[in-house]
Amino acid sequence: MKRLSAYLALPLAAVLAVGCKAGPKGFMPLETGHKVVYEVEYAGLLGAVQRAEAVQRVEEKTRIGGHEYFRIVTAIKGIPGHVTDTYYQRFAADGLHEVRYVDGRPVDYLSIPWPLKVGKAWLYNDGLTEMTCRVEERASAVLPERTYEDAWKISCYSVGSGFKEQTYLVEGVGEVRILQDFGSLKIEMRLREAG
User: Fold this and answer.
1) Which of 13, 36, 54, 59 could form a disulfide with 71 if both were Cys (CB 3.0 to 4.6 A apart)?
2) Rounded distance, CA 121 to CA 110, Å?
3) Which tens digit of pLDDT belongs to each residue from 57-87?
4) Could you write out the DSSP letters of every residue in 91-112?
């Protein structure tokens, strides 16, 4: 779950793909050198659809606040002025934790709790954005090249900004489809490749 610079950094954490070192039940593998590529489509006020590409890399481990995290770097090609986004992820007994640096200080927050189940809700607060998230249902994630059956459909919203997001999370793969609504800006990201 993300915000435009951070929002387009992909959010529900972001990381997501096939590989080793998966979290509970094979979710969202973290492995140094892993790369995920998303196709991005977005439309603003005038409605013209623009296309871009988001590339996310899992880099080396680093220690923050007594825990080891993987550094995650996301670059977006095709969106003028987009800045590369960096944050950190680790698995813990209660779920996937992330760290972002806000005003030079690390903010640790729970991005996705374990175990997932329909109806489960939580607060997502990365120090920049506070959202309420909920597992809505198990649903099909339809992409142009394939359909992922039985994905977790997760919805998040921010009361203050009006931002809304739907993420389709697949066990052993990660985020395969992300829909973001900023009001005047709509974004869709679809997994193209992972490895």
Assistant:
1) 59
2) 12
3) 999 999 999 999 999 999 999 887 788 899 9
4) EETTEEEEEEEETTEEEEEEEE
Q: Tokens 């374990």 — which residue?
A: 114
Distance, CA of 115 to CA of 111 (rounded, Å): 13
Distance of CA 57 to the CA centre of its chain: 13
DSSP strand E in 32-143: where? 35-43, 49-64, 67-77, 85-92, 95-102, 105-113, 121-125, 130-142
DSSP one-letter code for 2: -
Give the pLDDT band of residue 17 (cuts 50, 70, 90). Answer: very low
Rg (CA), the chain: 15
Beta partners for residue 180, in sequence order: 165, 187
Q: Alpha-carbon distance 35 to 107, whole Å?
A: 24
